[in-house]
Write a structure and sequence with these properties.
binds pyridoxal-5'-phosphate, 42% helix, 358 residues, alpha/beta
């Protein structure tokens, strides 16, 4: 397969702009020098704007899961209760990570169905140190009610730890307004940088809650905070990925977040309209507080069709879409509209999909 002719239409990693690739081929620099610190500060400033936060913000050399683990590993001790909301694979991942550090109080919804906020409130009212939720559940193509969960968390004085891995940079995410104590994003999704970095914002309240005896070592957020005061990372960062991140963030800023949010949302709406016209059902089951994701669309495979065959049919045409993960394998297929995906890419994907179905 000629990779130059392959179009990535899956929910991350997404295509990376040529200028981002060029930025990554720059000669190496001293990660304790002024040049790195200037790049570090530039990235942090742009990221805070995208997160809509004044909280501390750190970049970890490690994928999104590293930051999910940093969030829980630093705040949760073995006797602490964590309410984990799950309606897809990444909600389940938060639950699995939480189980390594503390006591899980699961709120398990069938994957692809909407979160029941009354159940969340009931569990939090019984007392918990934190609640975790995935804002945009990539595995199911559903957007979960982050502002509402933020309010409930505040009411019961619990930390709100939010996975924004496929919403931040593509959706209107208001970390401070929603009261998100720790918000996580991955570089390879809506921001359209290469995979390998994750970024997270951390509130003062979250820092105050880090009263554990043993914080993780590599993922010790207090160490990141201390180093950030010197515009550095505690350990050697993935410098070429920082070069790429900085360039990718400049592209985000040039487009502007409002335009970017609109473009990604209209992309997802175009996918839904095309599916409707083809008689293909969307996978998520919405209620008044959930929505279709505007960065990844998840569809049910038609009766009697294995979604892996749809994926394969598209791959033969040079277009990479995603199937279902874990228990959803063979049942659903997913198309990303995140990152710098252009209308022509979506149109081509829709047209080829129609050909695969015929
Ligand atoms: N959370 C969500 C919502 C995701 O979509 C993903 C990856 O697809 C992750 C977490 C895990 O991120 P990573 O694979 O970068 O560790």
């Amino acid at each position: 397969m000629d990779l130059e002719d392959t179009l990535l239409m899956m929910p991350g990693p997404v295509p990376v702009a040529p200028r981002v690739l060029r930025a990554m081929s720059r000669p190496m620099i001293n990660h304790r020098g002024k040049e790195f610190s200037a790049m570090f500060d530039d990235c942090t400033t742009m990221l805070k704007e995208i997160f809509q936060t004044e909280n501390d913000l750190f970049t970890i050399s490690g994928s999104g899961t590293a930051s999910m683990e940093a969030a829980l590993g630093c705040t949760i001790d073995k006797d602490d209760k964590v309410v984990t909301i799950e309606n897809g694979k990444f909600g389940e991942r938060f639950k699995d990570i939480a189980a390594r550090y503390g006591q899980v109080v699961p709120v398990e919804c069938e994957w692809g169905t909407s979160v029941d906020l009354d159940v969340v409130e009931e569990k939090l009212s019984e007392g918990a140190k934190a609640v975790t939720m995935v804002h945009n559940e990539t595995s199911a193509g559903i957007r979960n009610p982050a502002p509402e969960v933020g309010k409930i968390a505040k009411k019961y004085d619990a930390l709100f730890i939010m996975d924004g891995v496929t919403s931040i940079g593509g959706d209107d995410v208001k970390v401070d307004d929603w009261g998100v104590d720790i918000a996580v994003v991955g570089s390879q999704k809506c921001i359209a940088a290469p995979p390998g970095l994750s970024m997270l914002s951390v509130s003062e309240r979250a820092f105050e809650a880090m009263n554990k005896e043993n914080l993780p070592y590599y993922l010790d957020l207090k160490a990141y905070q201390k180093s950030a005061a010197k515009s550095q990372t505690p350990y050697t960062p993935a410098v070429p990925l920082f070069f790429g991140l900085q360039e990718a963030l400049k592209i985000v800023m040039e487009e502007g977040m409002d335009a970017r949010i609109k473009r990604q949302a209209t992309g997802a709406a175009a996918v839904r309209a095309a599916m409707d016209a083809m008689g293909i059902e969307m996978f998520p089951q919405l209620n008044a507080t959930s929505a279709y994701s505007s960065t990844v669309s998840a569809m049910k495979a038609p009766e009697g069709v294995d979604s892996n065959d749809i994926k394969k049919g598209m791959m033969d045409k040079g277009i990479i879409i995603a199937g279902g993960q874990n228990r959803l394998s063979g049942k659903i297929f997913r198309i990303g509209s995140m990152g710098n995906v252009a209308p022509k890419d979506l149109m081509m994907t829709i047209q080829h999909l129609e050909l695969v179905f015929k």
